[in-house]
Amino acid sequence: MKSFFVFFVTLLAALMLEAMPLPESLVWYRPEWALLVILYWVIALPFRVGVGVAWFLGLMVDLLQGGIIGQHSLTYVLIAFSCAIFYKRLRMYHRWQQGIFVCLLVSINQLVGFWVDHYLGNAEPTLMIFMPAIVTGLLWPWSFVILRSVRRIYAIR
C-alpha cells in the first residue's frame, strides 16, 4: 500500500507540474513531466508499471490540457511499451545516454502531438516542437536521481 501511495504522489506531482502556468516566452521549454515520471517507473519497475498506467496517465494529461482525448494516451502507451522492451538495456546505459534515449522518445510524443494539432489546423510547422524533448532529456539525470532516492527511501520494489 505504501508503494502505491508513493507512486501515486509522484504521478500527481508530475500532473501538477504539467498544469503549472508558464509565461508565453517559456511555453516551448516546458518539459514533459508526466512522461518523464512514467518513463522512470517503467524502467525501474517494468513488471508493476506498464502500458496500462501509461494509458491512464496519458488520459489524465489529455483531460488536464483540454486536448483531444486519447492523443497523449496513444503516445504514452507506445513509449512505455518501447521502454518496457528495452528496460534491461536502458539500465546499463549512463544517465546521459538514457537522457538521449528519453529525448528521442519525447520527440516521438511531440511529433504525434504536432501532427494531430496540424491536422486540426491549430499548429504551424516549426522546429520548436522538439524543444520540450531536449529539455526533458536534459532533466532526465536529475529526475532519475530524485525518483530513485524516493524509491529507495520508501523501499519500493
From TrEMBL:
InterPro entries: Cell_shape_determining_MreD, MreD_proteobac
Membrane topology summary: Multi-pass membrane protein
Keywords from the UniProt entry: Cell inner membrane, Cell membrane, Cell shape, Membrane, Transmembrane, Transmembrane helix
Main location: membrane
Pfam families the record matches: MreD
NCBIfam families membership: shape_MreD
Protein name as catalogued: Rod shape-determining protein MreD
Lineage: Bacteria, Pseudomonadati, Pseudomonadota, Gammaproteobacteria, Oceanospirillales
